[in-house]
Amino acid sequence: xxxxxxxxxxxxxxxxxxxxxxxxxxxxxxxxxxxxxxxxxxxxxxxxxxxxxxxxxxxxxxxxxxxxxxxxxxxxxxxxxxxxxxxxxxxxxxxxxxxxxxxxxxxxxxxxxxxxxxxxxxxxxxxxxxxxxxxxxxxxxxxxxxxxxxxxxxxxxxxxxxxxxxxxxxxxxxxxxxxxxxxxxxxxxxxxxxxxxxxxxxxxxxxxxxxxxxxxxxxxxxxxxxxxxxxxxxxxxxxxxxxxxxxxxxxxxxxxxxxxxxxxxxxxxxxxxxxxxxxxxxxxxxxxxxxxxxxxxxxxxxxxxxxxxxxxxxxxxxxxxxxxxxxxxxxxxxxxxxxxxxxxxxxxxxxxxxxxxxxxxxxxxxxxxxxxxxxxxxxxxxxxxxxxxxxxxxxxxxxxxxxxxxxxxxxxxxxxxxxxxxxxxxxxxxxxxxxxxxxxxxxxxxxxxxxxxxxxxxxxxxxxxxxxxxxxxxxxxxxxxxxxxxxxxxxxxxxxxxxxxxxxxxxxxxxxxxxxxxxxxxxxxxxxxxxxxxxxxxxxxxxxxxxxxxxxxxxxxxxxx
Amino acid sequence: xxxxxxxxxxxxxxxxxxxxxxxxxxxxxxxxxxxxxxxxxxxxxxxxxxxxxxxxxxxxxxxxxxxxxxxxxxxxxxxxxxxxxxxxxxxxxxxxxxxxxxxxxxxxxxxxxxxxxxxxxxxxxxxxxxxxxxxxxxxxxxxxxxxxxxxxxxxxxxxxxxxxxxxxxxxxxxxxxxxxxxxxxxxxxxxxxxxxxxxxxxxxxxxxxxxxxxxxxxxxxxxxxxxxxxxxxxxxxxxxxxxxxxxxxxxxxxxxxxxxxxxxxxxxxxxxxxxxxxxxxxxxxxxxxxxxxxxxxxxxxxxxxxxxxxxxxxxxxxxxxxxxxxxxxxx
Amino acid sequence: xxxxxxxxxxxxxxxxxxxxxxxxxxxxxxxxxxxxxxxxxxxxxxxxxxxxxxxxxxxxxxxxxxxxxxxxxxxxxxxxxxxxxxxxxxxxxxxxxxxxxxxxxxxxxxxxxxxxxxxxxxxxxxxxxxxxxxxxxxxxxxxxxxxxxxxxxxxxxxxxxxxxxxxxxxxxxxxxxxxxxxxxxxxxxxxxxxxxxxxxxxxxxxxxxxxxxxxxxxxxxxxxxxxxxxxxxxxxxxxxxxxxxxxxxxxxxxxxxxxxxxxxxxxxxxxxxxxxxxxxxxxxxxxxxxxxxxxxxxxxx
Lengths: 561, 331, 301
Prior knowledge:
heterotrimer, A: ten-stranded mixed sheet, 14 helices, about 20% strand, B: mainly alpha, 12 helices, about 75% helix, about 0% strand, globular
């Protein structure tokens, strides 16, 4: 038995030694985690790639705004400002010219260098555009690229004057010079010439040594699966000299771990691409004044599409009754403490085209019952309504399986609607099936719940226009999943997407919102809040979550108190 | 022996091929490639974009051609490129294997260090209180849902830690997940930091193996001490300790070698749950993420890696058994 | 005529068959009764099954009842003994109903796995030759598969419902039973009485069902019992990863998965379902272990 006891002694000694090592040093949870010139941010996703051409994840966009300069950027109030260009082209001074169906925009780029010292010039813009246009390159989105006919360097390739000719009218042409802006031709061209179809496998955007950008910071380290660090480039002609020298993103896929890291002070902030709403609420309960948790309604709109091909839902009175029958106000109060407000139209309140002057459907069971009776429904023996031909008012609702909040909402709706005699059955699908088949091929029987991630430039073209109804013939293109057909809506939406004057465009969008709320192709539920958190001492941190703008948009102005 | 090993390796090839065909078909025939999903996630993506991407990625070709191409590249050591991680799969896999090894090796030794002494003691003192305790523990070990145990550990050590009110142990607060603190440095601080992150997941991972090893050690020890040569040794008047150490132990551990070798691959395969709950960026987590995230190039690579691992350790187990047990001969 | 002849002429089987002497099962039962842990396991399993079957009568609430004004009620308070969850569901009620699903999946999956395994084992062992070779290579392949990954994958495509989950778990859980049964069949086949039956003109089906299967019953039963626990764990793990049983159908696994988001404020939500899984699996293992000792102590499982 001696050897056994020896082992045991050894084991015990080892354990004891371990227990004497101070494993967790008592961190001052209000102090910066890494030093007064550093910030550590918790990110729930790891960026996929830091090459604007191929980056698909929000986390990448968030990181890229520190190492690249955007042509035009939005601030935390969603206002546009020129970042990498000297002005926004506009119709008044002729920098944006309309020529029948075609357009021309004249830009001037602010002088700045790539992080390897070479100047950013017109040639870099032309190069990026040509790469994106190449059929062989696996760029995913080419929406703008396809609308542009050509780019001219009016002061030569080494100059900073750029003229962009558009094939067609496009309302948001002054939000970016080209789809992907400037890319360092002197670094990327080599990989591009070698194999355009494998450009996404090149080390650019992956390896810090070759990932040169034109932003305030440069990538210095990327430990896959763990963290990523960028370092200030010092004085920058656009951003000045940032106070924060280094920013580290720590990838913590488990949201509970993210919360714990914030509580222990190991990270200074949680990105908007971080924790769920429920977890943010719990975090706020435990903050004890050490850090702030932000909740701001954003542009993610949760809703339930009606399938308008379902005969039970064809009558607008039934749709209105259903919306009257759902206690959305109580739902957002109880589930979200009112921090994610009820929506009444398809545009979120902060969208420029939003209007409050739309028909609203308050929780009103009496009104709902009356509407259903008007539409010819009478209660059957089981308490469920039936129409004249005897069909039960039973609706199937589906959403993405595993999304807890949506599952909660489904169950609340099920209970709410049962009280006015409507049966709701739940049938959820994994996200890939739900979005890959059920919604986009319009296979949902009655109700489909999901969210649209909108941007300040989103409109209703394709979303609620009749040519946006997906079908076999158009290879399931378009986002009009309810199958909504309305001539007035078509007119307003089509006009809005082509209207270059912002005021006129917003008026058209207001009009479309009014039609939407009257006809109800979709149940508007609520607008999701973007949530983030930061230590009290971190100055100028703002909670932003737009399609291209995240909390890092003003990182060069952050500092510690 | 060499001929035996060669034959065994040859036998592995058709099995590995069979598995690869099965996995490849399962993964490829599944509806909705990630490329298809692009269209519904971003309104700016058009059907022609999807068609173009499929052509570039070779997804428009029939499955058998894709399989042959995959096989050709794989035997040359090229596992492809991950479209979600934007990285070469070989690099990705190597990186994750490294992380997994930290956990797997620690868990493995933790399991052995506890199981062997406990199993032996339990066998020597059969039907004693400690034996019952150990046996019951093995039942707990094989019955506990790993993810629940992991969650409870996180709750206890990272969220609740009630002992922190007592200052001598106030430091015992473990991170709820992850692999290291950013910017921790190198050398000793790195190891201490790594240890802190590894403690809970390696205990969780070790538990199942610990229970299995204990069971096997106990039963094989029980078998051995009833054998004649042990009785003879005792009858000769040798001290009990010597009998156990010199005669029984060695023979009792032979079957354990097999079990241990077989279970190493199991440790790897059993890690997905532990690694996911503790957010440990290892192979298991990669498997879960790639399968659930639809990155089938990575999923195929990880699944094949795990299958080959099982094949190799099966062989190692057999060879080890043959080497240790003089009664077995191969030619 | 042939029937009587076989019954008489067949030499004594290694273990008396059930129709010849009831002694074997009686002895096993006696042995089992002495196994305290096994009896405890059996008793708790019985309680759990009854609780699930009578859930509608036992549960204090209906399982779909939600109460938005009483979310996250703490346990051990009047009204909701085990507290309420994020929608104000009574946790005790949910546990009882979830038990129905989890136990159903456990039993059905184990049963289908063992049935499939028995079939493969019998065919392989009885016919031998190329059939045996092919079936055993197939078994090798399935045994080598990283089963959890494959289950996740299949769960992702077909998961969600109770039936698909049972089918998926059953489809990959048959290998152990197949090997056991094959071994047993090979052993029995080598004994005289099979040859005797064959010589007397008994059909293959008859040999398999009258002579081989009944005598291979012991390992099959033990494997099935131990498999129930395994299947419950697998279902819970799949549900935990979101590809198992989908809410609003409650299962212990998806209750646990759901509870994980509320660990900071309501940790008890994660405790109960996990504890139920643990208890159930533990009891099946206790019982299975006792059963093995009672039926066939030589069995290595």
